[in-house]
Amino acid sequence: MPARPPGPEDHHGQPDDGRRPNPGGVTDAALPAPLWRALERHPAPGARALQRGWRSPLRGPWLTSVFGLVLLALLPVVIITGLLDYAAYGPQFGQAFPHDVGWLRLPPFDWPTRPSWLFRLTQGLHVGLGIVLIPVVLAKLWSVIPKLFDWPPARSVAQVLERLSLLLLVGGILFQIATGVLNIQYSYLFGFDFYTAHYFGAWIFTAALVAHVALKLPRLVSALRSRPPREVRHTSRAATRPEPADPDGLVSAQPGPATMSRRAAVALVGGGSLLLAALTVGQSLDGPLRRTALLLPRGQDPGEGPNGFPINRSAAAAGIQPDATGPSWQLTLTGAGRTIHVDRAALLAMAQHTARLPIACVEGWSTLQTWTGVRLRDLAALAGVPDPASAHVESLERTGLFRQATLQANQVLDRDSLLALRVNGVDLSLDHGFPARIIVPALPGVHCTKWVARIEFRGGDDE
Fold first, then answer.
1. Are residues 255 and 359 both part of a single domain?
2. Of 84, 118, 301, 352, which is the most exposed, with the fewest CB atoms less than 10 Å away?
3. Cα–Cα distance measured from residue 438 to residue 219, given in angstroms and rounded to the nearest whole number
4. 222 within domain boundaries
């Protein structure tokens, strides 16, 4: 006898006895039945209309799992590179933001100087991949949005906990994306410290992601196995049908006609990510392609000539007065109980070293230039500290988060770590740090201090 076709009285061809598929396998008795039944009889305003409005036949475990698999593979890269970038700022010196993270502090280690493009890679991946994944995140949310408005919201303690984790997961990723995108647009309109909020927000999101993966990974695997990729590739829009009813309730109860195939939906999201990649990748490319980085406004048109590469903060914005960088400028070196003052002419008379090194910014852009100047280790020897444990660099700039920086021993002693005086064969421009700036392999750009006024070389006993 053929099965009875689904009728309007129920969702899945079964009599409506008031019970619904229960995610997590926990019985309705886990919460008092009168409680959730009362909620069901008195829905939130618009709840029933919303439930009836989600009619796309594409929604279901398979499509949700495809987007989930992409995020599962790439979000850990965004998280790990973000934590590595925090470590690159030298939290052991109290110069990473936020300063005090309590038990969320990372294991201490010295950030390496090799490969010289390490920070360029980690920060570029963190920002670039975060942007590229935006369409995938939005598509994943679209695929599960009916569940976010499910009513009653939960019928068991397990479901209450699951929905709380989903609140942290969805809220966390949207918060991280929104604040991150605003930050790279230089829109400091948060009303709170971006670095602190982004750091703690990342940990909250990561914890919610781990809990969600632990709960949903078996269903992701089974959903992907339920529909072979070849079948999806060869199914047209006209032949697209809803998936079978699932225990999570992702499949629409009253699906409408398909407006595109699943293949087209995946291609649409992938195309959106490729478009964002094309509008972002120029941030790390010198030359004309830098102007294609439309999502990262700083430095799209940095000017011409040897000093024609991006900056974050101009001399005018930093309050650098022209007379402070004129002929009277002197660099103060301290260490081993001595203080030495050297002017620019004396620095130019010292042994010069040239290195081709990248400089990378926290907002994601980077550039590769040829720098010439005095090795920091030579200056340390001049100050009487040939084997420094660290060096504290101060700028002529009087205000700002990054007017000073502390360098590790390996950063001071690296063969290519420089007090740069020239770039690409000419003197530094004022905006690029004239009369002198720090350049260290793999160092975050904000710690490559510009308009250097003082360097204190510290031995092990001075720490």
1. no
2. 301
3. 52
4. yes
